[in-house]
Amino acid sequence: MKILIISEHLFPETSGIAVRIEYYVKYLKQFGHHVTVYGPKKCPTANRKLASIPFYFFNTDVSQCLPSFQLYKDILFEEYDIVYIVGPNVLLGTVLLYLLCKLMGIIVCTSYHTNLFDFGLEYSKNPFIRKLSEWLLTYCFYYPTIWLKIPILHPENFIDLKILCNNFNNGNILSTGIDTNLFQYSENFTKNKLIHIGRIAPEKNLFRLIDLFSLVQDEYTLDIVGFGSIENALKLYVKEKQIKNIQFIGRIDYKNLYKYYQSAQAFICTSLNETYGFTLLESLSCGTPIIYPKCPVFENLYKPYFPQLEYDINNDKEFINALKYIQQNDKNLPQLCRAYACQYSWKKATEDLVSIYQNIIDNHETKIF
Questions:
Q1: Which fold has domain 193-341?
Q2: Among 73-82, 112-121, 193-202, 357-366, which stretch is predicted with the lowest mean pLDDT?
């Protein structure tokens, strides 16, 4: 299969989307597919580069790409079996790419990965700005894709499209994976050491993480690995509350994260807006138990296997009980965590992606609209 992937989300960006696309590209090539990747100039995986600018208003680690003449030329003349646009955006001129593919009879699909309406609540407290953002998301980000009948790939727990389109066909569900060779099992953790790994951003609910840790600060330590827009505010909050035994590690290369998971007795999550929660799966792969809040995604993924590790985000007692459960079961729980993670692999997830591609190709309609 000859595949063109257009993605702003590639290493060295730190995000679950970037991890996903990197492994897709790796395994698609291993399977023998011909893959061309367009992405930002700073991304080694992209064999075709696009001009890009940092997304200053959200996360400078994320780049916004601009289209190029070479991109249009490749779409028109390289005879790809399918064009896959990851996370469409306005600057890339995604609608123009859609129209070009539709007019020329080229098969194109796209994917959404983040529940942006929920994110909007975290990033904008001003009602006017929030309404404006919702309008832009609806009419610039989602509706063109729906109106043009572009096949949409998405996580199982993606709610934005359900809000916009009650009869939305959710057949193209992206499965997830984990690199169990990278995130290796280890029982050499430091007792009473807790960890959080991820972007330090509003949607991660990290001020609540600090409040929860303050309940156990005399007995535990907490390492926070990552960086982001509210890092300084979070550090100031810790200082003002005079909370001890917290260490901010900063940015760590993805290939070295496993060491930090392995070092801890438990991984703490406070985010309620995940569509997968890759960091939780990475932690489990290392044998490090997770303490996770009640939300639809985690109830589906983790509650059937680890019900004792769930807590209500506003219930201090439930959090403490989950922590006690980990202490009382520190002999067998790490092995159960690893066994759960080994159900997933990026090889299988990429095989599922190829099946989606093939289904889209087999059901492609030649009519334009």
A1: Rossmann fold (3.40.50)
A2: 112-121
Q: What is the secondary structure of 91-117 as a DSSP string?
A: TTTHHHHHHHHHHHT--EEEE--S-HH
All residues at 6 or more sequence positions from 253 whose CB lies less than 8 Å from its CB, including other chains: none
In the predicted model, what is the mean pLDDT of residues 180-199?
97
Query: What pLDDT was estimated at residue 169?
Result: 60
Domain ranges of the chain: 2-177+345-362, 193-341
- Is the pLDDT reported for residue 168 higher than 90? no
52 phi, psi to nearest 5 deg? -150, 155
CATH no., domain 2-177+345-362: 3.40.50.2000
Burial class (CB in 10 A: 0-12, 13-18, 19+), 104: exposed
The span from the CA of 64 to the CA of 56, in Å, is: 10
Beta-sheet strand order (sheet of 290-293) = 246-250, 221-225, 193-197, 266-268, 290-293, 310-311
Q: Are strands 52-55 and 59-65 parallel, antiparallel or unpaired?
A: antiparallel
